[in-house]
Amino acid sequence: MSATGPEVVAGTVDASAAAGMSASSTFLALLVPALVLWFIYFRISRRHMLELAEKLPGPRGYPILGNALEFVGSSDTIFRNIYKRSFEFDQVIRLWIGPKLIVFLVDPRDVEVILSSHVYIDKSPEYRFFQPWLGNGLLISTGQKWRAHRKLIAPTFHLNVLKSFIDLFNANSRCVVEKMRKEGEKEFDIHDYMSETTVEILLETAMGVSKTTQDRSGFEYAMAVMKMCDILHLRHTRVWL
Hints:
Low-confidence stretches: none
Radius of gyration: 28 Å
Transmembrane segments: 20-42
Number of domains: 3
Organism: Fopius arisanus
Strand order of the largest sheet: 1-2
Protein name: Cyp4g15_2 protein
Keywords: Heme, Iron, Membrane, Metal-binding, Monooxygenase, Oxidoreductase, Transmembrane, Transmembrane helix
Number of strands: 2
């Protein structure tokens, strides 16, 4: 009995290994045709879009990945990659992230045509990552819901309303100029300065809260928003998060 024990165990192990290999082979045998069928369906169902995309200038991509490697790295790295491409392909750049087509517009006049359209207003699916933070308001809503919210807020930006805040705009502009003057003649990034000023103007015009009553509240809020945007950027570029 004891002599046959190792043989039985060895036979069981061999049988398990064979079963595992058989399952793997079956899985691969099913996976490969499924991928081929999906690729054929993708090409046929999006044939018109693919034909139009081929007419747009853009760098050659890798099979399956496309130009996904252009979007690997920090926000600054990705921006520099796309910015570099803008010099290679003039006003329009076509990139692929896997099966997803992305078109970058360089000319502000082209951007204006898209943003002023009342038809092509559906936002990118990536906006869904903002939903837990911003809800379903004007910033991330789309379609008819966006139209309804935009109609409600439009009177707020009437020219007469904006004119009533001219003195406030001027005061905040002078304030930020004085802050930037301390940088001297050197080159510097104005982003943080302008972000703080924008928030201060919003607080005073929309909520009646002045920076004289809440010191640095605008700056702290602006930096918190930027931090949240950095987190969402990581979520965009790291699919495993």
